[in-house]
Write a structure and sequence with these properties.
The protein is built from eleven helices and 14 strands. The protein is α/β, with parallel strands linked by helices.
Length: 379
């Protein structure tokens, strides 16, 4: 059931929600409120993913679409339009599309607050551009969990550095969620093979933030030097762990099926497909406590994400350089690993592919693999 409300208020929207539940005979069994902050061009894909996730986590979905207006008259006005959906496309919950016009676009907090489910957790998701400090954003202060996506930004690596600088308990990023299957398989492989890892190498697309986070996670957990190799993708393509018994290799060249090679054991095939945004959101909604593994990873990598190939320990300890303008970065020309140092935490150098040796500089590659209408990169 769809109810359209023009120039309305939060009180009328609440009344429409009650009316919709009575009309379709729906019971109130929602477990959380999911607030999606996006724009008119991206709300369709985000809402589609959230509706799919609501099949696992029944929730009230509030989609905040800010439309400040172009002309001075539009910017000076204030109007709230809403579309209430109960049953049908809304999945196992309720959906409210909130279009905030004019001056009201700067007061989303006041509109959303009366529409939250009482005594239920709140999760805020920014599918594209997120505020500089999500935990200090007014909508972010309402939430137990705040979800961003560095892969949707112009410079994903710079976005990760910014996330690390302002991290607060409850923050997470879908770039981190995308590496969950990789972390699970690698941890299981090391459980089977009790041996010391002396070095590691992560291979993936140059501008893929999930590749960077996986490299930082390995460096933080294993306390080893991790080489970063750039490939054509899609997403993360391989991880190699050097041990005294040989190399443990998890190779996924096609973005779907991976091969796990462990010394002394037969090769095994592992289903490691690139997951949709709906699957990523569903995973994040399974736990609403702070993600300590993500916190340790981004804090460990602060200043290392932009480390040039061959950087010394002193360079790593220095403050991170300013973000480069979009489109000026080019692939390096050789696989470079950091020199041995006495540091207890080895740096994670940004190395380049052997396949790309001697290749001319090319512009930032477009993300492949699409989820929905506009598409987002996936691990």
């Amino acid at each position: 059931m769809n109810i359209d409300l023009t120039d309305t208020t939060s009180a009328r929207i609440n009344t429409a929600l009650v009316q919709g539940r009575r009309s379709v005979g729906a019971a109130v069994g929602m477990v959380l409120t999911l607030v999606i902050v996006t724009d008119e061009g991206n709300h369709y894909d985000a809402l589609k993913a959230a509706s799919e996730a609501s099949k696992e986590h029944p929730s009230r979905i509030l989609v905040v679409i800010k439309r400040p207006g172009r002309s001075p008259r539009e910017r000076a006005g204030a109007r709230l339009d809403a579309e209430v959906r109960v049953g049908g496309e809304a999945g196992n919950g309720e959906t409210v599309l909130l279009r905030l016009h004019g001056e009201l676009s700067g007061h989303a907090y006041s509109v959303v607050l009366p529409l939250l489910l009482p005594d239920a957790p709140v999760v805020v998701w920014w599918p594209d551009e997120a505020p500089a400090h999500p935990a200090d954003d007014l909508l972010g202060t309402l939430a137990q969990r705040r979800i961003t996506d560095a892969a949707a930004t112009e410079d994903p690596v710079a976005a990760l550095v910014a996330r690390a600088e302002v991290y607060a308990p409850g923050d997470t990023d879908l770039s981190w969620t995308r590496v969950t299957p990789w972390r699970s398989v690698l941890a299981a492989a090391l459980d089977q093979k009790h041996t010391k890892v002396t070095a590691a190498e992560v291979e993936g697309e140059e501008y893929n933030p999930s590749t960077e986070l996986l490299a930082l996670w390995l460096a933080e957990r294993l306390d080893v030097t991790v080489g970063r190799v750039v490939s054509e993708g899609p997403g993360i393509t391989a991880v190699r762990l050097t041990t005294a018994d040989g190399v443990i290799c998890l190779d996924r060249p096609d973005g779907a099926l991976a091969t796990l090679a462990v010394p002394g054991q037969p090769d095994r095939h592992v289903a490691l497909h690139r997951r949709s945004t709906a699957e990523l959101i569903a995973e994040e909604l399974r736990r609403l406590d702070p993600d300590e593994a993500y916190a340790g990873t981004v804090r460990h990598g602060l200043g290392r994400l932009n480390t040039p190939p061959g950087a010394s320990a002193a360079d790593v300890a220095a403050p991170p350089p300013a973000a480069e303008p979009t489109g000026t970065r080019t692939p390096a020309k050789a696989v470079a690993k950091a020199p041995a140092t006495t540091s207890t935490k080895a740096p994670v150098p940004r190395a380049s592919p052997t396949k790309a040796a001697g290749r001319a500089a090319k512009p930032k590659p477009k993300a492949d693999g699409k989820n929905g209408k506009n598409g987002k990169p996936a691990a």
